[in-house]
Amino acid sequence: MLEMHRRMVLTRHLEERLGEMHKAGRTRGPIHRCDGQEAVGVGATAAMAHDDFVTTTHRGHAVYLGRGLDPRRVVAEIFGRETGYCGGRGGHMLVGDAQTGMMGGNAIVGASIPAATGMALSMQLRGEARVALAVFGDGAAQTGICHESMNIAALWRLPVVFLLEHNAYGLTVHHSAQSSVPDLSVRAAGYGMPGETIDGNDVVAVYGAVAAALQRARRGEGPSLIEARTYRVEGFSTSDMGGYQPDAEIAEWRARDPILLARAALADRLGAAHVERCETEARAEIDAAFDAALADPMPAFAPHTPSAPHAGRAYGVR
Amino acid sequence: MATIRYAEALNLALREEMARDDTVFVFGEDVATYGGVFKVTQGLRDAYGDRVRDTPISEQTLTAMAVTAAMTGTRPVLEIMYADFLPLSLDALVNQASIYHYIWNEQVTMPFVLRTQGGGGVGTGAQHAKSLDAMVAHIPGLKVVAPVTPADARALLKAAIRDPHPVIFLEHKLLYNLRGEVDEADEAPAEIGRARVARAGRDVTILATSRMVLEAQKAAEELAGEGVSAEVIDLRSLRPLDLDAITASVARTNHAVVVNEGWRFCGYTAELAATIMDHAFDDLDAPVERVAARDMPIPYAETLEREVIPDSADIAAAARRALA
Amino acid sequence: MATPITIGAAGGEYMEAVVVTKWHVRRGARVCAGDLLAEVETAKAVTEVESPCDGVLGEICAGEGDEIAVDAPLGFLLADGEDDVAAEVDAPGSTPGPPPAARPAPAADPGARGGGQPGRVVASPLARRRAGKAGLDLRHLAGSGPGGRIKRRDVEAALARGPTGEGGALPLMVLHGFAADATIWSALAAELGRGRRLIRPDLLGHGAAAPAGGGFEDVLAPVLKALDAVEAPRVHLVGHSLGGAVALALAGRRPARVASLTLIAPAGLGAEIDGATIDGICRATRPESLLPWLRRLVSDPQRIGDDYARAAMAGRGEAVRGAQAALADRLFPDGTQAVDLRSALADCALPLRLIWGRDDAILPWRQALAAPGHAALNLLPGVGHMPHVEAPELVARLLRETLAAAEAMGEATLEAEAAQWLTG
Question: Does residue B240 sit at the C interface (CB-CB below 8 Å)?
Answer without folding.
Answer: no
